[in-house]
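Internal ticket - ligand job 415, XIL:
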Amino acid sequence: MADDKDPSSIEEQWLSLRTSRRQFLRAAAGTVAAASLGVWSGILGTGENSAGLRVASADEQTLRDVALWRHALPRGVLYGAAAIKAHLENDAPFAKRFAEECYILVPESSLKWSTLRPSRDVFNFRDGDWLSDFAEQHGMLFRGHTLVWHGAVPGWLAKTINPGNAAELLLEHIERVVRHYAGRVHSWDVVNEAIEPRDGQPNSLRKSLWLDNYGPNYIADAFRAVSMADRRAMLVYNDYGLEYNTRADGARRAAVLNLLTRLKAEGVPVHALGMQAHLRSEWTKEFDPGLLRSFLREVADLGLKIMVTELDVSDQALPTDEKERDIGVADAYKRYLDVVLAEPSVISVTTWGLSDRYTWLTRAYPRSDKTRQRPLPLDADLRPKAAWRALAEAFKKAPNRSRIIKNRNPWIFPY
Ligand code: XIL
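stdout (structure tokens):
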């Protein structure tokens, strides 16, 4: 184990949260541990016929009939997506598809400071609670995103914070928020995007209100505080720009590795690296499988798990034709997932949204032809696209890591 958490008691606590879906899964997972993956293949109908030959048409059919999370889980991988409350609350067909496809729900904005803390004295848990309840009702795990970030800073915080009160402000926030959700959160993105080599700071830390006012120890202190407030959650350092063979990504990979190495050496309770994985369809030359693979290995060698936390593929540079765009996007999914899922320490894949109906990229990276981006597994009409298929196929052929069940690792199979 990576730290002093007692796996059996953690598992007990998660068990008390289980829903009927989790009960089903637990029974099925037990079957895997006891027998073999063939049993699962039978359950899912995704295996081979009695002669050991693939049955193409049945296979094709079952690929589509099986939800993404069901493709992922037998391999020991958790699949889910980010969403905001308004979309799940007001768009019933979307909510239905979300619950069908996902095993994890990540609040896209509800747990960020700007939403959660309209003023210093007010903690607005309404949206986060609604999402946590939605996850629970549908047997999904719930991720916490995010406690410490340079973004989504409310105006009052920017005005109030100074070196004399920064620690109190941050630790009070962590204490209140993490305790509020304790026992309901599978994993917390404790610190988000703390590295920016271009800022020229020691250890490539990003210049931010936390670094300026708290000092570089804010990172280790935040992890320690979250661990004290929730002994059960998996604690994640989350960052972007780790995927490509570019000078900027290379510098960020080195700095992230250096940060994680130092945290581990100091005994800080960090359990996983979150790789955001906001991919770009046009960056094909910059994608270097060997380089990414060895980075993942180096992270895993520190004793850390890896979570793909915000996967999507911008089609900004692709032509207007939808078919062409969907092929380009799916290709980026496939090439990326083939590499990351080959690393057994990768335990989850969450996309940053499920359907093109709701994607931050349409605003953040608008297309010049003004059409909406198509970066996600389902199109705007909730129909699976080539990207959905790329995910399903990548999960299906991923090496199995569900043997971890035998080790009762509750962070991976916490039901
Ligand atoms: C984005 C949300 O998707 C947007 O809706 C919001 O306006 C800005 O934040 N990295 C992160 C996420 O860690 O929190 C960001 O989410 C996307 C980039």
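Auto-summary: Residues 108-109, 192, 240, 276, 310, 360 surround XIL (CB under 6 Å). DSSP finds 18 helices and nine strands in the chain.
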